[in-house]
Amino acid sequence: MWQTIKNLWFQDPSAKPILINDTAVRIRAGMLLAIPIYMGFTLWSARFGGHWIVDGDTIHDTLDTDWDGHIIYSANVIRRTWDYTIQTYVLFYGLFEMIAGMFVWTSRLSPTILLSSFLARKQHALWKPLTPKRYAWSLGAFMIALCLIFFNPSTFADWVNAIAGRTLLPDTSQYLSYWIPSLVFVCVAFMWLEAVLGFCVGCKIHWLLVKLGVHKEECLACNNIDWDEIARRKAEQAGNG
User: Domains in the chain: how many in total?
Assistant: First the structure.
């Protein structure tokens, strides 16, 4: 347990390159999958849920019917307004988790990293470099940030306009495209691929950038390196020395 708290999912937090346990990464992806699923239900409710709130105490028969013979009732109804305060907090937490996984010191602030490392402690460790995973989490952070702005357009517009000293964004209307919330379902797909199939979309982006020469470093995750064997040899050399 102490070793888990000390190293979390890192093989050696001070080593270069930094390697993390992909088994724990997949467990964590399964945990965080709850966030886009929750946001998906929110969008479903907003799109297909009731848009009117009816005061049941005011419903009464008008003693009249329409042309089809349907009884006409009268009631006080108000247009439903949506409060995304809880969803905003959930998205901010998701953004924190995406950023926390990118660096060693911030990883120690993440409850899901600690829990996933603990759950994976007795399973076979699959050591993968951290750098490709940063692309995956950066992609997730970008989509979460867009969703945050979509659900809080006025607040974000006020911040931008205050910083700029002039009106750059309207603070009374939605200026983002309505396809933005669909990114929630993209997040569900990406995290499901990571948690269930071990397929990391961000890692593939890193691999492509290496192939294109954008990154000069090699893609260590593509070389099928046996890090356990390397660690064993180093331990043997240290013992012989």
Answer: 1
